[in-house]
Amino acid sequence: MAKLWVLDSETKGTGANMVPLEKVLEQPGSEEPVAPIVRRRPVEERGEPASPTPREPYRFRITDVMTRQVLAEDADARATVAVLEEARSVVDVAIDVWDPEAGAWRRLTLAEQKKLWEYRGVPR
Asked: What is the pTM of this model?
């Protein structure tokens, strides 16, 4: 049978130690009651949802900064990277992502745009 370990906090300011349950129960003069050991049930038995609903894939819109021409609308990540391959610089395009909760396009920050930019030229 496996040993049960408990957290012994009767140290004097130096922290707590893990000790076998038998050692804590055998201590004479211990006036504090020992807390019962509570074991968690598996997720299936707790009635919690097994997994959340999967989120929809990101959708991007790419706009040329100089001409304001939309280069891609409702593009997935692969198509977005393919369009970015033709751009000269990361600052030559504006990239928006669709936010389903807000129901609107959100402009990516420069750091987020650079993350997408790093995937240019990477073999698929």
From this structure: 0.57
66 and 41 in one domain?
Answer: no
Amino acid identity of 74?
D
Q: Is 80 helix (H, G, I), strand (E, B) or coil?
A: helix
Decide if 44 contacts 60 (C-beta within 8 A).
no
Q: Do 32 and 65 fall into the same domain?
A: no
Domain that holds residue 27: 5-46
Across the chain, which has 124 residues, the per-10-residue mean pLDDT values are: 76 75 69 69 64 86 96 95 93 95 94 93 78
Is there a domain that residue 124 lies in? no
Q: Compute the distance between CA of residue 73 and CA of residue 86 in angstroms, rounded to an integer.
A: 16
